Amino acid sequence: MQIVSVVMSVLLAIVAWVSAVGKLQKKPQIMDTMAHVGVKPNQIPVLAYLEIAGGLGLLVGLAYSSIGALAGAGLSLYFLGAVVAHLKKKDGAALFGPALFLALLNAVNAYFIVQSF
């Protein structure tokens, strides 16, 4: 299970960072989606930095399991927040599906990290 956890942590950190970079670069599609769910422009960098911190936490968690588990749980909550924002707008699964998938993957990864203590 430790190998699975390492691979998942690295991949999820990369996904979080790519998502954060898109927000920081103010890519039009991301900005439109954020506006659609009600995120104010001044909140977007904060969300991006939270993703960066979560990804970094996953990598630090490779050496310190408790930090990795907390980072995985935090990213899971982050992406669940995105799901809730989409559900409030009555968006379909096509819009909130990726966030739900990432929330579940981060939760599973956090579980794997805790099991490897």
Tell me what you see in this structure.
- The chain has 117 residues and is an all-alpha fold.
- It contains 5 helices and no strands.
- The protein has one domain (2-115).
- It has helices spanning 2-24, 28-36, 44-60, 65-88, 93-115.
- It is globular, with a radius of gyration of 14 Å.
- The mean pLDDT is 95.
What can be said about this structure in brief?
This protein is mainly alpha-helical. The chain has one domain (2-115). Helices cover 82% and strands 0% of the residues.
| Structural domains: how many | 1
Q: Classify the helix fraction into a percent range.
A: over 70%
Largest sheet: none
The computed structural class is mainly alpha
Radius of gyration, Cα only, in angstroms? 14 Å
- Please state the overall shape, judged from the principal axes of the Cα atoms: globular
Task: Determine the mean pLDDT.
Answer: 95
What is the terminal separation in angstroms? 11 Å
Give the uncertain stretches in residue-range form.
Answer: none
- The topology string of helices and strands comes to HHHHH
How many extended strands? Answer: 0
Number of helices: 5
Strand content: under 5%
Please describe the structure with a list of short key phrases separated by commas or semicolons.
single chain; 117 residues; mainly alpha; 5 helices; 82% helix; globular
Topology of this structure?
Elements: H1 2-24, H2 28-36, H3 44-60, H4 65-88, H5 93-115
Helix pairs in contact: 1-3, 1-5, 3-4, 4-5
